[in-house]
């Protein structure tokens, strides 16, 4: 048994291609307006800055793992509103991370010392000195393995990045050195 449907002229139902296109264009305009109003450039800036710093910490850790004859670290001086990468010999001389000859340039940076202003960063707190050993383990003080002056990171190092009235956090996990 065959069933054949017959449509009378004018009784067809559906949308034309033009109607669908008009609706999609209107939805795109409304979505662009809503998204544009909900995400500010300040939010985008603080996300970009915190991702940049997070990657610089990871770079510091990977450099330490590649060059096991030196200790690599990162120092942040909030009073001077700057931070830098350093590489020092083992055993680590006192305050060697502050000496210009031990400072290294982060990839993509034009200077050895990164200023908060150059990033559009309002603040990075707290100030810190972070060392990584040859296996990527984080330390807040380092002389040499087994020295009582060497201190592994005791708890999470939580950094607050502030830019344009927005804040984000970066966390360095003890033991593994994972950067979140």
How does this model look, in words?
The longest helix is centred in the N-terminal third of the chain and has 26 residues, at 41-66. Helices cover 29% and strands 27% of the residues. With 180 residues, the chain is an alpha+beta fold. The protein has helices at 17-38, 41-66, 116-119, and strands at residues 70-77, 82-89, 103-104, 113-115, 123-125, 128-132, 138-141, 151-152, 157-163, 166-172. It has one domain: 3-Layer(bab) Sandwich (minor pseudopilin epsh fold). The protein is elongated and about 90 Å long. The strands form 2 sheets. Strands 1, 2, 3, 4, 6, 7 and 8 form a 7-stranded antiparallel sheet that branches. The mean pLDDT is 87. Strand 9 (157-163) and strand 10 form a beta hairpin. The protein is built from 3 helices and 10 strands, in the order ααββββαββββββ.
